[in-house]
Amino acid sequence: MEAAMSEQSLSTPVVIATPNTRKVFVKTYGCQMNVYDSERMTDALSKDGYQATDVLEEADLVLLNTCHIREKAAEKVYSELGRLRDMKKARAKDGREMVIGVTGCVAQAEGKEILRRAPAVDLVIGPQTYHRLPDALRRAKGGERVVETDYALEDKFEHLPAPEKAKTRARGVTAFLTVQEGCDKFCTFCVVPYTRGSEVSRPVSQIVAEAERLVDGGVREITLLGQNVNAWHGIGPDGTEWGLGDLLYRLAEIEGLARLRYTTSHPRDMDDRLVEAHRDLPALMPYLHLPVQSGSDRILKAMNRRHTAAEYIALIERIRAIQPELAISGDFIVGFPGETDQDFEDTMRLIETVGYAQAFSFKYSIRPGTPGAEMDGHVDEAVKSERLERLQALLFRQQREFARTCIGKEIDLLLEKPGRMPGQLVGRSPWLQPVNVDAKTSEIGDIIRVRITDAGPNSLFAEAIR
Ligand code: SAH
Ligand code: SF4
Ligand code: F3S
């Protein structure tokens, strides 16, 4: 399972290409918003005759869509660029060209510094200017080393091609849809407000049109994305400003769209309408990713999260009172500057109180340019490791406990892909757990009724019910 903004490595899906077409290989790091952007960039390039490939060796254009959230995430990019440089050199000897581009949050944060550190790179494009990618590529091919990291005045979503039906089909029955970008919260540990800029919400009409196209292409589940998704406040068709709750009620009306999710939410932006949507909309899955980062009020204040541990717990109680089926997932940072043993114990206590179905946890990583980097009391790496280990053991125990409570339950399962065994299919439970089921008479995209029979460490097993 992926957190909204957890680090991971993914490649674009395989597309069979005819000879002589140019091919683009996109490697995606970071959060789901990058996954969405990679698809949009691939779509934009297909207009120029590029087809996506997952075979690096055959690519004419390689794009690394990068993440800057933690130091490790950013450093991975430079080691990958080292490998690509060697490949580009070998290619050049054979008289073949290979264009290398860096996109995403490292591109935005480091800009032309990337060209200096990695001379093989031909173009650097920040997340706000992906619609200019085809033009930038033409310039790069003309010998220019292109850096595009200005915040564009025009709306990138309006200029990026909408997902095509055939491509949507190939991508499967679940899809991401970015509704909001950027962040105005300025948590003191976080680079996102700098790499993605200030909050921008897409208008309702644009989102509904994109959702309808996806459904038309066979998508049955849409996850709305935003760095701060529940801060979304787009203009409705009536000219007034809508909140995320209103948007979900509207999207739930789309025929054929069976499931809705949204991620990542900030505790400060969970308004009543959004909470009520969890009660009223059967399509809205009972799962909420609501990061808290720490259970210590002192640390929450230093992080500029602008709520207390008690307020977070009260919020969760309020949502659970309205939707008892709701499972909570979260993100945690251990070893933020100034974190004492007591602060850490407060985090452990909060976890015990809330009970998480799933969570992502990280050691604090110093990000240059953020206020946290300048704070006193940086915590020793060994202490961070020790705390992370204890925290993860507790979270893992809770995840297993939650999975065990699912055994015996009857649920609807959206079948997403073939399983490992013949006749087996894999879907996701309402709570985002992968579920394996023998379903010989069903196909991908069906929603079937199943009973959970067993729980492994990372997935569930089920039998189909007639
Ligand atoms: N917008 C979301 C998450 C943003 S980033 C929120 O407000 O919660 C995804 C996760 O990465 C964060 O929740 C946090 O747990 C982690 N993260 C962000 N910056 C980090 C840093 N400097 N060091 C370690 N983890 C960090
Ligand atoms: Fe980063 Fe905080 Fe914004 Fe989340 S809310 S993206 S942690 S600044
Ligand atoms: Fe990483 Fe940027 Fe997402 S920093 S987590 S790719 S918004």
TrEMBL record:
It comes from the Bacteria. Gene3D superfamilies: Methylthiotransferase, N-terminal domain (3.40.50.12160), tm_1862 like domain (3.80.30.20). Its cofactor is [4Fe-4S] cluster. Keywords: 4Fe-4S, Cytoplasm, Iron, Iron-sulfur, Metal-binding, S-adenosyl-L-methionine, Transferase, tRNA processing. PROSITE patterns: MTTASE_N, MTTASE_RADICAL, RADICAL_SAM, TRAM. The keyword Repeat does not apply. Its main location: cytoplasm. [4Fe-4S] cluster 2 binds at residues 183, 187, 190. Binds 2 [4Fe-4S] clusters. One cluster is coordinated with 3 cysteines and an exchangeable S-adenosyl-L-methionine. Its EC number is 2.8.4.3. Residues 22-142 form the MTTase N-terminal domain. Residues 404-466 form the TRAM domain. GO terms for cellular component: cytosol. It is an enzyme of class 2 (transferase). Residues 169-401 form the Radical SAM core domain. It catalyses: N(6)-dimethylallyladenosine(37) in tRNA + (sulfur carrier)-SH + AH2 + 2 S-adenosyl-L-methionine = 2-methylsulfanyl-N(6)-dimethylallyladenosine(37) in tRNA + (sulfur carrier)-H + 5'-deoxyadenosine + L-methionine + A + S-adenosyl-L-homocysteine + 2 H(+); N(6)-dimethylallyladenosine(37) in tRNA + (sulfur carrier)-SH + AH2 + S-adenosyl-L-methionine = 2-thio-N(6)-dimethylallyladenosine(37) in tRNA + (sulfur carrier)-H + 5'-deoxyadenosine + L-methionine + A + H(+); 2-thio-N(6)-dimethylallyladenosine(37) in tRNA + S-adenosyl-L-methionine = 2-methylsulfanyl-N(6)-dimethylallyladenosine(37) in tRNA + S-adenosyl-L-homocysteine + H(+). [4Fe-4S] cluster 1 binds at residues 31, 67, 105. Belongs to the methylthiotransferase family. MiaB subfamily. Catalyzes the methylthiolation of N6-(dimethylallyl)adenosine (i(6)A), leading to the formation of 2-methylthio-N6-(dimethylallyl)adenosine (ms(2)i(6)A) at position 37 in tRNAs that read codons beginning with uridine. HAMAP family: tRNA_metthiotr_MiaB (MF_01864). This is tRNA-2-methylthio-N(6)-dimethylallyladenosine synthase. The lineage of its organism: Bacteria, Pseudomonadati, Pseudomonadota, Alphaproteobacteria, Hyphomicrobiales. The gene is miaB.
